[in-house]
Design a protein that fits this description.
This protein has 254 residues and is of the alpha/beta class. It is built from twelve helices and eight strands. It binds phosphoenolpyruvate.
Length: 254
């Protein structure tokens, strides 16, 4: 697939996989995907498996990401992990503001913006998640909600930092539900996000930013979604937990 931006396919393993299971999964991915150069591939295991996975992807094309991080550098934040700690495990990307974090841990745009700045300060690339609920879509508010999330979560980033930031559009109603946005629905919102980025950071920056689609991406729908002009990859949850399905998503996206 000839695309303006190199595709990025990222697997969000969420709170799944022991160390042994994570190693087995990543070994399978290395076997299946080690020759793939056309697409950037990222795995985001739970914190506890980062080190073991990092050791298995040395000298491969697969990159490592984390699922969240704290916005502070050090201190009394029991249970939290900072950007510098992630860097110790060769982490390159960090997912921020996933809808599960917005919903269960009350993360808001202002907090996500602080985390994004802290990630950049440590040379980690944030993957910032935005997306509307079903009720918001049905009320015709999808663009208003997403526009506010984009503006709020990226507040304070420089143009250079924005170029090193990834956006993930994940309609909340499509996450883990088996319901996928149609490729036309995805393209419409991705185009809207890119226009919003152009207003905030200028056209040239907006053209460089990768905007991923997330929400029940599977081998069967990957090609159609990834062929949309403003869809620059996928953030994959459930289908990232098995070698076959994740590898097929990657291969079907090429
Ligand atoms: C996600 O949570 O980022 C996600 C897209 O999940 P799923 O692929 O399972 O819908």
């Amino acid at each position: 697939m000839d695309k303006e931006r190199k595709l990025l396919i990222a697997g969000n393993w969420k709170m799944n996989k022991t160390v042994a299971e994570a190693v087995s999964l990543v070994e399978g991915l290395v076997r299946e995907l080690s020759n793939v150069k056309e697409v950037d591939i990222l795995v985001c295991p739970p914190f506890t498996a980062l080190y073991a996975v990092s050791q298995k992807i040395l000298d491969t094309q697969i990159r490592l990401g984390a699922q969240t991080m704290n916005e502070n550098n050090y201190g009394a934040y029991t249970g939290e992990i900072n950007a510098g700690m992630l860097k110790e495990f060769s982490v390159r990307y960090v997912i921020l503001g996933h809808s599960e974090r917005r919903q269960y841990y009350k993360e808001d745009d202002a907090l996500i913006a602080k985390k994004a700045l802290a990630a950049h300060a440590a040379a980690l690339k944030p993957i910032i998640c935005v997306g509307e609920t079903l009720a918001q879509r049905e009320a015709g508010q999808a663009e208003a909600v997403i526009g506010k999330q984009v503006e709020g979560s990226l507040a304070g980033l420089s143009a250079d930092q924005m170029e090193e930031t990834v956006i993930a559009y994940e309609p909340v109603w499509a996450i883990g539900t088996g319901k996928t946005a149609t490729s036309a629905q995805a393209q419409e919102i991705h185009q809207f996000i890119r226009k919003t980025l152009a207003k905030m950071f200028g056209e040239a920056v907006a053209k460089k930013v990768r905007i991923l689609y997330g929400g029940s991406v599977k081998p069967a729908n990957a090609r159609e979604l990834m062929s949309q002009p403003d869809v620059d990859g996928g953030l994959v949850g459930g289908a990232a937990l098995e070698v076959r399905s994740f590898s097929d998503i990657v291969k079907n996206s090429i």
